[in-house]
C-alpha cells in the first residue's frame, strides 16, 4: 500500500518566489505560501496549480510534483516551461495568487515490507540502502525523499496520518543516479551531494558525468548492491525509487526483469518484489482526482500477463515496478 494524506486543500495561495534557475533552459522554482501542504505532503504526491484563479484560458490547472517543503508555511514546485500553462505560470510575480489543490495522489512508501521484520535466519533487518534514479525534471518528486526518510518521527497532523516511525533511518545509505540529455537539465547538480552517500551523474551528450544512459550506469554497479545484500543478508535491504520520462522508466523496468531472470531465477530476493522498486509515472492528465480518466495506464493484475487500467492521478502516480510489465 502506498502512502497518501486523507485530506486535501483547495484554494488561492500567495506566491513568494518564482525564479528561473540559473544555467538551465526555461526551468523555474515556484514557492507558494500554504500552511497545510508543507507539513502534510508525502514525497511523490503532487498539486494542481493554475496560474491565475480568475482566468479561464487555459481552463484547467496543471499537475506538478511537490518538490520540497521550504518551511512550515511554504512549499516549492520545480517546473519547466513547455506549453501555454507553464509559460503563463513563469510570468507570475511575487505577491500574485495561484489556485492550488493538493496534496494529491499516492506518494512513495518508505516503510518497506522488510522494515522491522526478520529474515529466514531470524535476524532483524536494521539497515536500508535507498537508491534513487532520476531523469531530468523527474528529480522533483524524489528531491525531498531522503529528508523524509531520515526523519525518524515524521510528525504530521493527526487528522491526516498517524506518526510515521522509521527505525534505524540514521544508519541508512542514500545513493542518487541522476541523468539527463545535457548538463543544463541536471538541476542542483552542484549542491545535491549533501543529501547522499554517493551521487552518480550521466548525460546523453557527455557534457557532465558519465556519457550515456543513467540506467546503464546503474546496472554497471547493480551487482555491487546484490553482493552487499548477500554478504549482509541478516541486516541489509535495498530499495529503489525512480522517476523520469516514459522511455527511461520502461527501459529501467525491462532491465530489472532481465536481470532477475539471469541472476536470481529462484531467489526470494527478486528485485521486483513489492516495494523493492517504486516508480513515479509522468503522464498528462486534466482533473487530477480520477474523474476524467485521461491518464489511465495498463497495470498487471496479480503479477500475471493479465492487466487492468488504473489512473495515474488517483491510483498513482507511484506504482510498484512489478505492476508495470506492460508500461511502454
Oligomer kind: single chain
What is the mean predicted local confidence, pLDDT?
A: 83
Unreliable stretches covering 5 or more consecutive residues: 113-121, 152-168
Radius of gyration: 19 Å
Going by CATH, the homologous superfamily of the largest domain would be Nucleotide-binding domain of ferredoxin-NADP reductase (FNR) module
Measured by DSSP, the beta-strand proportion falls in 25-35%
Strand tally: 17
User: What is the overall shape?
Assistant: globular
Order of helices and strands: EEHEEEHEEHEEEEEHEHEEEHE
The tally of domains stands at 3
Biggest pleated-sheet summary: 7 strands, mixed
Give the CATH class of the largest domain.
Alpha Beta
Structural class: alpha/beta
Q: First CA to last CA: what distance?
A: 23 Å
CATH architecture of the largest domain: 3-Layer(aba) Sandwich
The amount of helix comes to 10-25%
CATH topology of the largest domain: Rossmann fold
Task: Order the strands across the largest sheet as they lie in space.
Answer: 12-11-10-7-13-14-17
How many helices? The count is 6
Describe this entry's structure for a reader:
- By secondary structure, the chain is α/β, with parallel strands linked by helices.
- It folds into three domains: 9-104, Elongation Factor Tu (Ef-tu), domain 3 (Beta Barrel), CATH 2.40.30.10; 125-158 and 166-273, Rossmann fold; 281-327, Dihydroorotate dehydrogenase, electron transfer subunit (Dihydroorotate dehydrogenase B (pyrk subunit), domain 3).
- The protein has six helices and 17 strands.
- A hairpin with a 2-residue loop joins strand 4 and strand 5 (74-80).
- The radius of gyration is 19 Å and the shape is globular.
- The two termini are 23 Å apart.
- FAD binds at residues 62-65, 78-80, 85-86.
Amino acid at each position: 500500500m502506498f502512502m497518501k494524506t486523507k485530506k486535501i486543500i483547495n484554494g488561492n495561495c500567495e506566491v513568494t518566489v518564482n525564479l528561473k534557475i540559473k544555467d538551465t533552459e526555461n526551468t523555474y522554482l515556484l514557492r507558494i505560501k500554504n500552511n497545510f501542504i508543507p507539513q502534510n505532503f508525502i514525497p511523490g504526491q503532487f498539486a494542481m496549480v493554475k496560474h491565475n484563479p480568475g482566468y479561464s484560458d487555459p481552463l484547467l490547472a496543471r499537475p506538478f510534483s511537490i518538490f520540497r517543503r521550504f518551511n512550515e508555511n511554504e512549499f516549492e514546485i520545480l517546473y519547466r516551461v513547455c506549453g501555454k500553462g507553464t509559460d503563463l505560470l513563469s510570468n507570475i510575480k511575487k505577491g500574485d495568487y495561484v489556485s492550488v489543490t493538493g496534496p494529491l495522489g499516492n506518494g512513495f512508501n518508505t516503510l518497506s515490507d522488510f522494515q522491522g521484520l526478520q529474515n529466514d535466519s531470524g535476524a532483524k533487518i536494521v539497515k536500508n540502502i535507498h537508491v534513487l534514479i532520476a531523469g531530468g525534471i523527474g528529480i522533483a518528486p524524489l528531491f525531498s525523499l531522503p529528508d523524509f526518510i531520515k526523519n525518524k518521527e515524521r510528525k504530521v497532523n493527526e487528522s491526516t496520518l498517524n506518526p510515521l516511525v522509521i527505525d534505524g533511518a540514521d544508519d541508512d545509505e542514500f545513493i542518487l543516479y541522476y541523468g539527463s540529455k545535457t548538463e543544463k537539465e541536471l538541476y542542483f547538480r552542484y549542491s545535491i551531494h549533501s543529501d547522499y552517500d554517493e551521487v552518480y551523474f550521466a548525460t546523453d551528450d557527455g557534457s557532465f558525468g558519465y556519457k550515456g544512459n543513467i540506467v546503464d550506469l546503474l546496472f554497471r554497479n547493480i551487482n555491487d548492491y546484490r553482493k552487499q545484500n548477500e554478504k549482509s543478508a541478516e541486516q541489509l535491504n535495498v530499495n529503489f525509487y525512480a522517476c523520469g520520462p516514459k522511455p527511461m522508466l520502461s527501459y529501467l523496468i525491462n532491465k530489472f526483469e532481465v536481470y532477475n531472470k539471469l541472476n536470481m531465477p529462484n531467489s526470494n530476493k527478486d528485485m521486483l518484489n513489492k516495494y523493492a522498486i517504486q516508480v513515479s509515472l509522468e503522464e498528462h492528465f486534466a482533473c487530477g482526482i480520477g474523474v476524467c480518466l485521461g491518464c489511465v495506464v495498463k497495470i498487471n493484475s496479480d503479477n500475471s500477463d493479465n492487466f487492468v487500467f488504473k489512473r495515474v492521478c488517483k491510483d498513482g502516480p507511484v506504482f510498484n515496478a512489478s505492476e508495470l510489465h506492460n508500461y511502454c
